[in-house]
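user: can you give me the structure for this one chain? tokens are fine.
assistant: on it. calling the predictor now.
[tool input]
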Amino acid sequence: MLFGFFGRVSNAPRLLDALDAGSQRVRGIAQRVAGATLQNQSGFSIPDAESGDATGVNLEEEMTRLADEQLRYETAAKLLERTYAKIRLSIRER
């Protein structure tokens, strides 16, 4: 009965897709950061200045990407929350 209803009356499916894509990007960033910090199996430690970063991962850049992705995710979640609230309100008014 409600199959495709939200897609016809709102942008909820696109927002859900954005949340899923954001989650996948965060997982990728986390894997790169973890891989860069586990090169000597010492956990999240700071690499020695002499040895450098053997994996070629710029941790500062990756953490900036992570913060940017977090902002995008929170924005999409808020928009989705407002979309559902508007749908709920319009159904209650009828």
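assistant: here you go. DSSP finds three helices and no strands in the chain. The chain has one domain: 11-93.
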